[in-house]
Design goal:
- With 72 residues, the chain is mainly α.
- The chain is 71% helix and 0% strand.
Length: 72
């Protein structure tokens, strides 16, 4: 392997190790505002959509009623 390449790899590794050892100051995290709001709106829209779908579909016939008609 090339001597220059070996030295350069060692230099880059030492720089990466030095960056890993530096403590990164933690930024204070803000409380999310739009995430919970969007989740609540999405749940509401889903429930409304399910209600509309169930209202638009005709009810399925009851199987017991068909069995009674056949035996009578």
């Amino acid at each position: 392997m090339n001597l220059y390449a070996i030295e350069k790899v060692q230099q880059l590794e030492s720089e990466l190790n030095a960056k890993k050892q530096l403590p990164h100051p933690e930024k204070p995290r803000r409380k999310p505002v739009f995430g919970p709001l969007a989740a609540g709106a999405g749940r509401t829209l889903r429930r409304v959509g399910e209600g509309l779908e169930s209202w638009a579909n005709p009810p399925l016939p009851d199987r017991d009623q068909h069995a009674r008609r056949d035996t009578a």
